[in-house]
């Protein structure tokens, strides 16, 4: 719960700084088409009907909100928003930006060791290696979506949906 609260506070601070310094994150699509509206509705429905909402109590609902809403917004604003746009301005080759952000995103998941170490008795190294591998796979998919759509909104939605099924 503390981690979720920290991420919410950091996301709010990040959005305030971004707004103050007029930093472009390519957050929303140029035009909110029917596809985006339908994707948003589907993501919301999936979140609402997730079985843990009905069987796991408030703790399960909190974890679902953390994993499928808070974390995707936080991570996507950083990786497919801020870092992506800054690297694209310097590198000028989107495929290189894709590779760098994908690797950074994978390595970022090593930072979750603090919360994982308390739940794993043995094999922490293997668990963390899988976190990096899964982060790499997520990063590859989300990066391709970012290239295709040119915005973070689509990656936030997809990241949230993937986390519903992959927590």
From TrEMBL:
<feature type="transmembrane region" description="Helical">
    <location>
        <begin position="60"/>
        <end position="83"/>
    </location>
</feature>
<dbReference type="Pfam" id="PF02517">
    <property type="entry name" value="Rce1-like"/>
</dbReference>
<protein>
    <recommendedName>
        <fullName>CAAX prenyl protease 2/Lysostaphin resistance protein A-like domain-containing protein</fullName>
    </recommendedName>
</protein>
<dbReference type="GO" id="GO:0004175">
    <property type="term" value="F:endopeptidase activity"/>
</dbReference>
<feature type="domain" description="CAAX prenyl protease 2/Lysostaphin resistance protein A-like">
    <location>
        <begin position="60"/>
        <end position="165"/>
    </location>
</feature>
<keyword id="KW-0472">Membrane</keyword>
<feature type="transmembrane region" description="Helical">
    <location>
        <begin position="95"/>
        <end position="118"/>
    </location>
</feature>
<feature type="transmembrane region" description="Helical">
    <location>
        <begin position="34"/>
        <end position="54"/>
    </location>
</feature>
<dbReference type="InterPro" id="IPR003675">
    <property type="entry name" value="Rce1/LyrA-like_dom"/>
</dbReference>
<keyword id="KW-0812">Transmembrane</keyword>
<feature type="transmembrane region" description="Helical">
    <location>
        <begin position="6"/>
        <end position="22"/>
    </location>
</feature>
<keyword id="KW-1133">Transmembrane helix</keyword>
<dbReference type="GO" id="GO:0080120">
    <property type="term" value="P:CAAX-box protein maturation"/>
</dbReference>
<feature type="transmembrane region" description="Helical">
    <location>
        <begin position="124"/>
        <end position="145"/>
    </location>
</feature>
